[in-house]
Amino acid sequence: GLGTVRGAEEGSEARSAAGSRRRPGPARHGALDYPHVQIPFEITLWILLASLAKIGFHLYHKLPSIVPESCLLILVGLLLGGIIFGAEEKSPPVMNSDVFFLYLLPPIVLDAGYFMPTRLFFENFGTIFWYAVVGTLWNAIGIGISLYGICQISAFGLTDITLLQNLLFGSLISAVDPVAVLAVFENIHVNEQLYILVFGESLLNDAITVVLYNLFKSFCQMRTIKVIDIFAGIANFFIVGIGGVLIGILLGFVAAFTTRFTHKIRVIEPLFVFLYSYLSYITAEMFHLSGIMAITSCAMTMNKYVEENVSQKSYTTIKYFMKMLSSVSETLIFIFMGVSTVGKNHEWNWAFVSFTLLFCLIWRALGVFVLTQIINVFRTIPLTFKDQFIIAYGGLRGAICFSLVFLLPPAVFPRKKLFITAVIVVIFFTVFIQGITIRPLVEFLDVKRSNKKQPAVSEEIYNRFFDHVKTGIEDVCGHWGHNFWRDKFKKFDNKYLRRLLIRENQPKSSIVSLYKKLEIKHAIEMAESGMISKVPSSVSLSDYHEGKIKPLSPTEMENMREILTKNLYQIRHRTMSYNRHSLAADASEKQAKEILIRRRHSLRESLRKTNSLSRERPAAANTKRFLSLPKNTKLPEKLRVRNKTSSRVGDSSDSDLDAATTVLNLRPRAGKILREQRLRQQRPLPEFRVEWKNEVDGSQDGRGEQQDPSTLPQPSIGFRQPLLTRPRFGTLSREDLTADHGSARPMPPPRLVRQASQGDRQRNKPENQPY
Amino acid sequence: MMFCGTEDPFGQLGTAVLAVLPLSFLCTGRAWGAEKPLARHANLSLSFFSSSVSHSQITRLYSRFTSLDKGENGTLSREDFQRIPELAINPLGDRIINAFFPEGEDQVNFRGFMRTLAHFRPIEDNEKSKDQNGPEPLNSRSNKLHFAFRLYDLDKDDKISRDELLQVLRMMVGVNISDEQLGSIADRTIQEADQDGDSAISFAEFVKVLEKVDVEQKMSIRFLH
Fold it and tell me: Where is this region: Disordered (chain A) (predicted)?
């Protein structure tokens, strides 16, 4: 403890005063040289303890789902604080505000900002901004004024607290804390939009909090307040917020630019990400701007470009390391909060504390309600009551207000201890009570009509069916459409930024090509092994005897139900995987892969079927042409197929593979693979003939094999319209044939084909130009 | 907004803030951030839908339509739908895409697009009593069920045969279920629904099975409000 440390320090000082030389003689190995290693030792012990506590929680698997981790960590901290207090009869070390703001907070915000879905964020930016700015102002001023009203009542003994002090207190306690919010929302599954709203609000309100806090603090210390100061305060807000964002963006670009040149030294790539983001944070803090906004904007900017520049391994390293740092930070923060609570820093006043709590809740609820009514007018997706409840109830306070209250100058705030107590009570209440009860309450609000009768086997199927359909249609509708500014930004981005910041023509790293090979191999294997049933032809069903359905026993029904529950595909999870404990959603990855492979296979099947069908039908004028080719008839398929690939790879396969790998978190890789494929295929126009001849010679080298799966993402052949798509193929190959191999072919007879719609042909034309 | 004196700066600040807020009430209909897309084609006349879908929704969905339409020819093809990544990993993705295209066609224009989506509008309470004499709105319970039925029934014979059911089941289920197990599940499903003993599910039987299921909620999308 601290007592022994001091004793040892004095001892060592005496020793070092004697010339900083060890006494001659045998070294005393058993002696403790604690002060030498004190600081790193203690830090390591704290972190180790925090991590061990985390392991402990997860041993009992039910615990984290009921009680959010933050609560458990605070409890551990309380325990520790109690032990230290009991052992030494003095207050344990209070969490240093500097330590918190400079070391513990940035990793958490960085983690959150890096994995923030930017699109969704900007979609809802107006609402987030509205809640963060106006909401925080509302809360701060409301709480401050009402507390001032309470303080005026002399019965409570609080009359010495001025209005300004109350306002300052109000501003620091209205700060919704991203750490606490994240910790609790991990448990409950809310839709993405709601998550973004609460989380975005908690990030953005840092700017307001900083400004208000500093504003009121300086007002408290000033004699007179002029009007100009108020305006300066308002202007200050904009400067703080926007300045922070600008710093973040600037450093984000620099970071992206730096990673463009790191391909020779892959090992330190992750370091740049962390260094630049931390740099943005402390630079902003240096200028008294909002560090949180700086680091968030830096992370969001970096994310897009850095991902494409760094190697796969670096990317994984960055993700893991970021999660690790933020996890450790969060744990430490909560434990420290628990430790700091114990001690002699408190002054209890029933009225003040309870009214603070009450006003926090009331003003938050009121604020959310009123603001939502206003903002719903402008939103296309209005927020329901349930959403509002979650936003209001999810406004948890955490370590930020805790640290801010410790930063209050005691000279100006004689009742500082009272404030500390009140803040701690509010934090504990929000984290514990609200954190634990939010989940059951959300579930309670969700239940509409629970008909818990005997569920039929088919019910599960129907329910899942409807859910899939609904999800599918929702995806078609999309949550967004065109947006003027986003399109402009995208154009600007593509034209200038990407060229500047992303390194092109990267040699295929071994990982990338290995992934590609494995993916293709896997796809082929799955298809070949017949694990995916083909579209059942009418032949296979002829042996089904009608009327043979026998009633099932209950156990058999149970069996069935169990099988279904285990095997029905999940709906795509729309909630964030903001998990501190794991990175990717692996179950849904597997599912997505299966679905994709199956769809590709079925598409390929139907393509094959239509080919075989049409080949057998000489009536179709197209086939005549192909059959009339003197060389092998397999050729047109390859020709057509390869043309399809090259003309289509830009569209569907891009998105298809893109889709898979988006889900699988490997988007930049897939983009690169596809770009390379496309380049490879688009390039050899003059060599086209050569390639073709190679194909004809029957050399089925890896070339052909590799291209075959890449043809899998075909445009969908409708279930009923094989013929309609064929003319397109025909058009392509005819043009090609006549272009390249004029002489030996008999000119195809003029044919009457059902024209694909005008737009369709027009669309094909420009793509055909290269050929 | 003249401030006089410094006695009550915060009251004045408060007044200023409160003065700004009512002004925002007057700015209804303004685009706020990204929540409302800019309507490129202001004079969308979809009077066909005017009773079903609100104007703001139509503009928003038109933006979505144009963003999907890569060929910029005013219609969507199947490839355009397949470009939606989330749809690619939806087990029923192909069927859903198919549902947008009318019989035998390969392109869908905006009317057709909206027509399909109109099925998914939530049922308003005040609509139920509105128009008993007119044609049934597309988002009635019966029409929603009909839409779902058509997703099963490919050959359009107004029956879901065992074969069709099996196809859909296979799409929705992982690779760990054998064909026999799936077959028995399909049998059981038909048995629970079938009333006239033809070993297929007709539309009436389909409706009957689902009478306790909250179809209105399951097949409604909030932002088609």
Answer: 1-29, 606-656, 690-771
